[in-house]
């Protein structure tokens, strides 16, 4: 694959290092994603020089190597690989690489020993060892009382290494550039072989999705106790607690341990109240917003694809953790006689959807549906674990919640929401989120489900799938986040529900539209439903995971 590092950062499985190009300035930065998207990620701006003069260069990027070569002279180049998770290697020939640090006040660089410089980066609580293995390296870093005024590093005609660590450097031997290159190529071949199949029509999307899922994983560090798949190493440098489930879903068949670790991240950081964090990274856990409970929905699918997930100890861990989650909704998110509520659009994952424009809190039919399905799943898990009494209790809870949903949030025109302390009906009914009760299609009367499906096809289906806001709505926006654009996880939920509950033809049609959408818009965070253009973050893992899942299902159907 020819990688465009403006759209997809160059990185590798397990590494916090990445390299990307700014879209507005074309500047290239070596970056580090420790600390999530609130931490500064830029380490160094990279340029190529010849005789001290900046030169234009072409960028040749593949999944495992990133080469910058002078325009018209491919013999003069700098190449970057990441052969080990914490090692970035640079090889130069005929040109000089200049690295200018993106430093702040206390960031400091000093000479560690001949040919080695240690760089302390305060905001990231990180250190780098910059080593000259075979070439020429010069450093200009004038000291000014509490730090360097600036840091300018030049590398020429040789092999150089930048290694990251938290506390102390461990002396080591580094592999040759060629050996490192062969190693990372082998690792990537193994990933692709295990995770994907070839397709002449969809190969560009397969290549993107395989690389994004592989390169967006980081190794255990700080809060993260196992390998974790970030949503992106471009902008969205965290693990969110419903995004993670879609990534786990795709990993489940061939990488069950890695899939389970994506769920375990949130079990390990579950609050005493029962809630999961909104997001986690290696340094920070945020409980500001609480995403809908979909762990059991995903776990049932994982059990269907791999017996690894049927292990009683793992099932018990999911079961016990989910019981705490639903208790959180009962105790902290439910007013007497009402359904559980959201306190912000971000709680739902649909941040700015029209359902939330009238205020908070909001009783929403999607949240009720997620909880009903969770109770039904817990009842099945309870039977498997020999907890018969609890199975009955969970089924009764699902039954009563379903009755309340239909009484409070459904009328002859479909589902709606309620807002505020007086639980007034919300006027806006043009958001796709109000159609998510398809998730419990097995409980809905056929006439209700038929009404939902007809509404979806007539009012939301576009060239590339279901828009998140009716295109006819005055609130629809071309690049409106949840006010129109298509999103992968939501598409998955609708496709799965439609194909599971008697509407396979429509479900497969929407699935195939999404597959084709990726050929136009790549693996973006979301997409224009009419043109297919990729929007916002253009290197997103849950998009990649959903694409690969859909592709596998299409192969089976065909």
Walk me through this protein's architecture.
With 558 residues, the protein is α+β, with helices and mostly antiparallel strands. The chain has 2 domains: 171 residues, Distorted Sandwich (Beta-galactosidase, Chain A, domain 5); 362 residues, Glycosyltransferase (Alpha/alpha barrel). It is built from 13 helices and 28 strands. The strands form 7 sheets. Strands 1, 2, 3, 4, 5, 6, 7, 8, 9, 10, 11, 12 and 13 form a 13-stranded antiparallel sheet that branches. Helix 3 packs antiparallel against helix 4 and helix 12 crosses helix 13. The longest helix is centred in the middle third of the chain and has 21 residues. The radius of gyration is 25 Å and the shape is elongated.
Helices and strands in order:
Blueprint: E1 17-21, E2 28-32, E3 42-50, E4 53-54, E5 57-61, E6 66-70, E7 73-84, E8 87-101, E9 108-113, E10 116-121, E11 126-132, E12 136-140, E13 152-165, H1 177-195, H2 203-215, E14 217-218, E15 228-229, E16 239-240, H3 243-251, H4 256-268, E17 279-280, E18 285-286, H5 295-305, H6 312-332, E19 341-342, H7 345-348, E20 362-363, H8 365-384, H9 388-408, E21 410-411, E22 414-415, E23 418-419, E24 424-425, H10 446-459, E25 461-462, E26 465-466, H11 488-500, H12 504-521, E27 526-527, E28 534-535, H13 541-557
Helix pairs in contact: 2-13, 3-4, 3-5, 3-13, 5-8, 6-8, 8-9, 11-12, 12-13
């Amino acid at each position: 694959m020819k990688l465009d590092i403006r759209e997809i950062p160059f990185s590798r499985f397990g590494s916090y290092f990445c390299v990307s190009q700014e879209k507005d300035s074309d500047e290239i930065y070596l970056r580090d994603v420790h600390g999530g998207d609130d931490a500064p990620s830029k380490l160094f701006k990279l340029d190529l020089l010849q005789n001290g003069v900046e030169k234009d260069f072409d960028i040749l990027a593949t999944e495992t190597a990133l080469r910058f070569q002078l325009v018209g002279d491919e013999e003069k180049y700098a190449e970057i690989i990441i052969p080990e998770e914490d090692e970035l290697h640079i090889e130069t020939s005929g040109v000089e690489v200049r690295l200018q640090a993106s430093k702040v006040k206390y960031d400091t660089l000093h000479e560690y020993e001949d040919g080695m410089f240690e760089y302390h980066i305060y905001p990231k609580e990180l250190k780098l060892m910059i080593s000259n293995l075979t070439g020429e390296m010069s450093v200009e870093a004038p000291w000014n009382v509490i730090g360097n005024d600036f840091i300018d590093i030049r590398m020429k005609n040789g092999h150089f290494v930048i290694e990251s660590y938290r506390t102390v450097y461990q002396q080591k031997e580094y592999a040759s550039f060629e050996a490192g290159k062969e190693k990372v190529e082998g690792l990537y071949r193994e990933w692709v072989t295990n995770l994907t199949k070839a397709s002449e029509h969809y190969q560009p999307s397969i290549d993107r999705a395989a690389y994004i899922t592989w390169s967006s994983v980081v190794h255990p560090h700080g809060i993260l106790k196992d390998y974790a798949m970030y949503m992106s190493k471009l902008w969205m440098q965290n693990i969110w607690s419903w995004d993670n489930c879609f990534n786990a879903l795709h990993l489940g068949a061939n990488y069950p341990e890695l899939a389970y670790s994506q769920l375990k991240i949130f079990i390990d950081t579950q609050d005493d109240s029962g809630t999961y964090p909104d997001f986690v990274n290696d340094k920070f856990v945020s409980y500001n917003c609480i995403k809908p409970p979909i762990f059991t929905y995903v776990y049932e699918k994982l059990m269907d694809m791999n017996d690894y997930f049927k292990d009683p100890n793992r099932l018990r861990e999911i079961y016990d953790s989910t019981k705490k989650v639903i208790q959180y909704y009962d105790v902290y998110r439910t007013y007497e006689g009402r359904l559980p509520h959201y306190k912000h659009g971000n709680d739902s994952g649909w941040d700015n959807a029209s359902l939330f424009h009238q205020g908070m809190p909001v009783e929403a039919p999607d949240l009720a549906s997620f909880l009903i399905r969770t109770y039904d799943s817990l009842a099945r898990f309870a039977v498997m674990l020999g907890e018969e009494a609890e199975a009955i209790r969970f089924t009764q809870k699902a039954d009563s919640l379903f009755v309340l949903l239909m009484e409070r949030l459904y009328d002859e025109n479909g589902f709606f929401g309620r807002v505020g302390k007086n639980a007034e009906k919300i006027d806006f009914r043009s958001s796709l989120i109000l159609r998510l009760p398809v998730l419990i299609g097995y409980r809905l009367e056929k006439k209700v489900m038929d009404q939902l499906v007809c509404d979806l096809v007539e009012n939301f289906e576009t060239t590339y799938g279901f828009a998140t806001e009716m295109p006819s709505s005055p609130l629809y926006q071309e690049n409106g986040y949840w006010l129109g654009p298509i999103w992968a996880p939501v598409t998955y939920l609708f496709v799965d529900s439609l194909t599971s509950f008697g509407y396979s033809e429509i479900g497969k049609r929407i699935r195939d539209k999404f597959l084709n959408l990726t050929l136009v818009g790549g693996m973006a965070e979301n997409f224009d439903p009419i043109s297919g253009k990729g929007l916002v973050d253009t290197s997103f893992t849950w998009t990649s995971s959903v694409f690969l899942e859909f592709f596998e299902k299409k192969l089976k159907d065909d």
